[in-house]
Amino acid sequence: MPPREIPLTDLVLGDEEINAVAEVLRSGWLTSGARTRAFEERFAELTGAAHAYAVSSCTAALHLVFAGLDLGPGDEVICPDLTFVATANAVRYTGAEPVLAAPLSRTDLTLDPADVAARITPNTRGICLMHYGGYACDLDAFEELAREHGLWIVEDCAHAPLGHGRLAGSRKPLGRFGVAGCFSLFGTKNVSTGEGGLVITDDPELGERIDRMRTHGVTVPTYDRHRKPIFGYSVQDLGFNYRFDDLRAAVGICQLDRLETINAQRRALVDGYRDALGQIAGIEVPFSDRCLEDSAAHRMTVQVPYPDTVRAVLRERGIQTSKHYDPVSSFATYGGRPDGPAAAAARDLVTLPLGPHMTGADVEHVAVELKQTLAALARRNAA
Fold first, then answer.
1. Is the dihedral of CA 233, 235, 236, 242 positive or negative?
2. Is the link from the previous residue into 325 a cis peptide, with omega within 30 of 0?
C-alpha cells in the first residue's frame, strides 16, 4: 500500500475563484484596474489601515517601502537572520546594508530585542520585524527601542495576514504597528493569488510614493488614463514595474472573503499538533506557550534531533516537510557564516505540513509517524 500523501501546504480553490477569473477575462481588462482597487479596499477594511497597495510580490512591497523611506548607501536596517532572504535583499536593493540579528530562542523564533539593541549604530535607520510563523514580535520592546533611538519600524507580515499583536495592551492587526506592513500572496501563504504582495500604511505621503513607484513613478496610472480623458502624465519618482493585475485581484477577493475562516482552521490544526506532539520525547514545539487567538498560524515548526534524517524518512512515508529557514547569514552572498546569529536556533528546525487541505486525522498521522521516526533514530544511535 503506498504511503499516505500529505503535502507541506496546498491551495484550496473553488468555483468562486474560477468564476471571478472568468469574469475578468470576459471584461477585456486584465491588468491593474477596478478589481485591483476593490481588492486593496477590502484588505484595508480587514486590517483597519488607511491605505493598501497591491504589488507584484512581498519583496516588491518591502523594496517600495524602503525606497519610499529614502533608504540608501551608508544606511543600515536591522533585520532578522531567521527569515527568507527576500527580507534582507529588499534592504540591499536600495544600496543600504541589512544588519542581521538573532531570534529570541529555539522556542521563540521571533526577533530578539536585546540582540537588536546591541546592533544599533549611528547608521541605523530602522528595524524590520518579521512575525515568524504568524506570531507577533515583542512589539512593546521594539516600540521602546525605536522611540529611544529615533528609528522607524517596518513589518514583514508575509506569515501573518490578519494575525494580531499587542502594544501597551492594545490589540490590532499586524502590519499596523510600524510605518508600513508588507504581506505576501505567494502560493504557499494563508491568502494566495499565486504571486503578489500588499503594502498597508497609515502615512498618506509614504502611501502616495508607493502608489507612484509601483508603476514606474508615473502620476496617472494606465487604468485612470483608460477610463478618463487624460492624455499625459508626469514622472516624479524613480519607479519600478511592480504592478498587480485584475486576474490575481479577482482570486484575492475570494480568498480574503475566506481568510478569517482559513486562519481559524489553521489555528485548530496547530492546537491539535500541540496536543499530539507535546509529550513526545526529543521534540521542542516553538510558540507552544503563545496564545493561538492572535496568531495567523502560518507555519508549524518543531525542533528535533537529526533533522535532515527526519525529513528524509518522513518524505519516504509520504509526508512533505521543509525548513524555515536556513539563516540569511549562511548564504554565500551574506558571508556564508555557519555560526551566524540564527545558527543555533535554526540547526534542528523541521517544518511540518499545515494548511486548510488537512484534517485532524492528518495531524495525528504526522505526529505518529514523527514519533516512530524519532524512536527508531534513538534506538539506532543507542546501539
1. positive
2. yes
> pLDDT by residue (tens digit) across 325-344?
999 999 999 999 999 999 99
CA–CA distance, 316 with 378 (Å, rounded to integer): 19
Please check the confidence at residue 237 and state whether its pLDDT lies above 90.
no
Nearest to 182 by CA among 59, 283, 83, 299: 59
Q: Indicate the range of 7-16, 72-81, 92-101, 261-270 predicted with least confidence.
A: 7-16
Quick: pLDDT tens for 161-209: 999 999 999 999 999 999 999 999 999 999 999 999 999 999 999 999 9
DSSP 179-211: SEEEEE-BTTSSS--BS-EEEEES-HHHHHHHH
348 Cβ contact list (under 8 Å, min separation 6): 106, 303, 304, 305, 307
Largest Cα separation within the chain, whole Å, is 80
